[in-house]
Structures are given as structure tokens and as C-alpha cells.
Amino acid sequence: MTFYTPIPDELKEYIDKWKLKKGSLIMILRSVQDYYGYVPKKICFSLAKELKAPLARIYEVLTFYNYFKTESPGKYKIAVCMGTACYLKGAAAIIKAIEDKLDIKESQATKDGLFSLENVRCIGCCGIAPNMRINEKIYGKLNKERVSEILDEYINLNAGVSSSQEPPIL
Amino acid sequence: MFENITCIKIGMSSCGVAAGAEELYQQLSAVIKEKKLPVELKKVGCLGICYAEPLIEVKTGDNPAVIYRNVNIETALEILENKIPSELVIDEDLEIKNQKRIVLKNCGKIDPEKIEDYIQNKGYQAIKKAILELKEEKIIEEIKKSGLRGRGGAGYPTWLKWKATKEVISLNNDGKFVICNGDEGDPGAYMDRSILEGDPHSVIEGMMIAGFATGAAKGFFYIRAEYPLAVDRVQKAIDQCYDRNLLGEKIHGSDFNFDLEIRLGAGAFVCGEETALISSIEGKRGYPRPRPPFPSIKGLWDKPTVINNVETLANTPYIILNGGDEYAKTGTDKSKGTKVFALTGKVKKPGLIEVPMGTTLRTVIEEIGGGIQGNKKFKAVQTGGPSGGIIPEKYLDTPISYESLQELGSIMGSGGMIVMDEDDCAVDIAKFFTKFCVDESCGKCAPCRIGTIQTLKILEKLTNGEGAPEDIDKLKTICHSMEKASLCGLGQTAPKPVLSSIRYFEDEYLEHIKEKTCRAGKCSFLKQESVEK
User: Fold this and answer.
1) Are A107 and A130 in a shared domain?
2) Region B5-95: CATH code
């Protein structure tokens, strides 16, 4: 078993640029996550070699910060804001509505891998609370019906795609 | 009236974009192009009127600009076609009544992605004046006169931080650093995001002034993981500065060199604490360390480091240009200038506001915020996030200052101001913040690590209807120990939401314990709340 998985060129370029700078580990790990959607274990082995750092040093940082994920998320990452303003305006019920609609719990992904759900720290759009973010797009002034409509849009968007492709591997 | 629309500005901060401003911009831009209209379409930052997003400002000829609220493409086209949907007009004078804009003066007015816009509004004049006229000593003198204190929440005098760093003797200038703390982690606060998105150059200029005054040649922007748009705009602004030699070597022909770089956070509330933030920039876990030594003397990579909050830095160009005395005319005896607040929660008009220090909480909530939405009764206002407390109605006439809020058991904090109504439960909100601190405690010191979780356990008992009469005393004991024994600000202030809610709403705690009822209907031994509510 080999521990070295080649790092994709695009990522390698970024890492080479940053690895000479002091204190760049967080920036490098962010670029890995941006590339894969999470930080895969196999890349951490390669990264340790590349940065000449012990694996523990990488995991120490990886597990400290909320931003980093070690599991692959859904295609659409639903992040419900749990800031104070959103909380007071019913964020818990928004999460419940999504859980019911998609039949998943917080921190889980749907079986087809289309959605994953998590609650996140304040995303800073308190003026239009309650909010959620799906990948990069932010939705405000939510209620149960609106959430359902938005999720349907994503489901419909993918209905055409998945029918013409192989069924997703579970 | 609208024959000759010359300029349309669209508010495109994160919340504007979330409300649909991006689509609006695309569509309007297409129409203007197709019809070959001589209209300048501008992306601007947050106008502060968050409840009415998306917002557009229309300028016709020499007439004063008009702001429209809740605009969609249909209404935008009507505006282009000279039909005026008057019910959508916002009276800007009314909106900014009771406010004074120093930090936010450019937000919502200029295109944050164009350095020319900033320069046209006296941009980069302050750093020029600092380098060519004032020199290091006098800059710190002006900041001292202004009375500016840290806007991140603790309120430490800015000039003292700068002076301490300046006085450390360094053989060459690459041994000191300036850090901009943009790790705005308080839930319910978005002042710094709005400033970074709406007027990034003002913060860059502030960092340059700090760098010149203290002898630092390198600055770091530390920006929170959740603010991609802010990161994007700051990076563009930095690039533009390098293009114009406003950053780099021999700035304004002097010997002053200054480099600037962004480092991103990765989601840890504790990194808002300055020593933890420094660890994070060093690429390590965001653990705080004991102070002293303070970062001013021994900070990033053990070098003297000035670390200031976004809003603090954004104030400095104004102070340098207009003088410390002029700045100090606004505010109270000990708290000078203005403060930006993110006014949210159950008010009619949530928004980003900037008021002179000394404005009363009542003015902010009732006049600017329009009072409580939906005919409900005001209950309390929360300031300072997880490090602050809740303030009940009888203290609403308190003028806002660092000291007055501290006396009430809360803190100024970074500027989140969340209004609660009768449907919100005092015990539940204490539980909310405690849960937050449990998740965010870094675990380095025992009082915070263990104290937060024990507090949460008791609060959960209370909200489940299993509370015992001695629980209130237990809570107080744990909280007081945490305040005294925790290593950093997170642990020392984490008990504040609990203690302040006990202080003002002990009767509600007793109701939860003795009668197993929650008058707000929030707690789980009663029926679950619904989304609509």
C-alpha cells in the first residue's frame, strides 16, 4: 500500500506558491477543501510529504477549525445559519423543515448524494434572517414554504441530469 | 423627471446579493446595453437599509438621488421607463436621522471594486498627510486626541497599542506587523463584513497609517471563513493599491515600505481573541495564550504587532484628515466618535447603522429600528453576542458607551444589537449562547472547557422542566469562577449572557423551575414553536 496519492497540478501549483511562506498551512488546507469539497485523508498523506511536516501537524489544525470537513459533502451543501437573529426568527424550524423534506438529519447527506445539511455560524446576513446558504448562494427571509420551493428547484434541476445518467452509486 | 437618468447604484453586499441584487444587476445591465442608454450602472456596498433589500439609487441629471426599496426587475424597468413607483421611494433623510456616518460614509455610495471612487472621496489623502506632514509622533498624538478606542468590543485605547509597538526598538522595519482583525465571529453581527465589502480601501488605508506610525512594514488581513465576498473585494483592493504604488516600496516617495496580504480564518470563534488570532495566522490551532506579554510587544512570530479591529482601522483615515479634536467632538466623555451597530432581531427595520456614542438604546431601537414588529411587546436587547448580556426595557434610556453597557452587565462588543420581544425566552437565549460557547471553547483551559458545559447542562435541565431551586445559585457559582479563572476573553465573558439574564429575568428562571412554564412558549416542556412564528 502506498501512501502517496499524486496531488492534482492545479492544487500543486497553489501549494508550491504557499509552502515557502510562514504559517501557510491553513491557506493550503483551504485550497484542498475548495478543490475536493472536503479534505481527503489520502491527500493529507501526500501533503505531509510535500510540506515535510508530520501528519499529526496537519490533522491537529484540520480538526480544530469548523470550516474543514473530512467527509465528502453532498453536491449541494445546505448550511442553515444559526446566528442569534436567525435563531430568534425560527432557524430551528427551518432545519426541521429541511430534515423532513429530505429525510436526513443535521450533518448528514441524502442517499443520492445530492444534498447535505449542516448548521453554521452566523453568515452575517442578519437583516434578512432567517437565512440559509446552498453552496455559495444565500437565501434570506425564509419560511417553511419558501424552503420547500427552493429545494424543489434544485431537485428539478437535477431530475433531467440523473435520468440520462447512471443511477447514483449508494 | 426621469428623462436623463445618469447613474444607477445597486446595493451589492452579501445580503443585497442574497435578496436578488446580482440578478437585478445582470438584467439591468443587459437592458441598458441593448437600448444603448447613457446610464452608468454601479455596484455599491451596503446602504444600511437591510430590511428593504434589494435597493437601488437612481440619479437623474442634477437632481438629488432617489433610493427605491424592494426592487425587482419589473419595478426597475418601470423606473428606467420614467414610471415612478412612488410607494417604493425611501426617504433617505429619515433613514439616516439620528445617525452620523464616519466609518460608513462611503458604504453604499462608492463602488468598492474601483479604487478611483475611493480616491475621489478623499481616499488615500490621510496616508499622504501622515507620511509627508505629520510623521510618526504626531499621528499617535492625533489618535490620542481623538479618544479612539478598540471597536472590537473591549475598548482599549488605540493610541496606547500603537505607542507600545512603536517604542519597541527594531533595527529594521521588517520586524513589526500590523494585523487587521476581521474575524467577526459574534452571531448577529455584520458590521465588519459590511465595511470590508462596502469600503475595503478605508481599512487598507487605516492599516497603512498604523504601519507608518509604528514602524511596521508588513500587514495581514485576517478575514473570517464565512465571508467570501469580503475576501474577494479586499484582494481586489490590495491589487489595485499595488498597481498604483500605494502599497509596496517607497510609498509617496518616502522611505516607507508596506506590504499587505490576506490570511483566511477557518471557522473558530476564539480566533477573534487577539492572541488566538495570531496563532491562527502562524498556521496553528487557534489557541489563546496568557497576556502579558501583549501582542504590542510580542505578537506575531514573537514580533511587536499592532492588532486592531476593522472598524477601528476604518476610523483612522478620518481622524488623520480632520484631526483628533474634530473626531472627539462626537461622543461621550470617555467614549468618543461613533459606533456601527448591526441592528437585528424583532425590530421593524433591521439595518446597519452608525450612531454617535451617547445615543440612547431607545433612540436606536424605536427611532431607527422603527420599534418592535407585529404589535409585540419589547422584552430586551442583546449586545456583545456571546460575550455580552441582555438589557431590559427599564434601561433603554441609557446612553451607549463602553462604561454604561458594562455597568448593565453587558458589553459594547463588536456591535451586534439583537432585539428580543415577548416571544423570546430569557433562559432559552442564555442556553443558546452557552451552547455556542461550548462548541467554540478551544479547550485549552479548564474553567472555560468545563464551566461552559456544566452551565449548559443546568440550563437544559431548566428548559426541560427538570430544574431545581438550587440551580440558580449553582449557575452563579460556576459563572463567577469562569469569569475569574479563564485564560482568555472567551471564557471570561462566556458567563455574561447567563448572569445578565438571571439579573434581569430571575422571575422567569423561577417560573421554569417551580411552575415548569415558559411564558414565551419557547421551551421544550411546552409545545414546539412553529416556523411561522
Assistant:
1) yes
2) 3.40.30.10
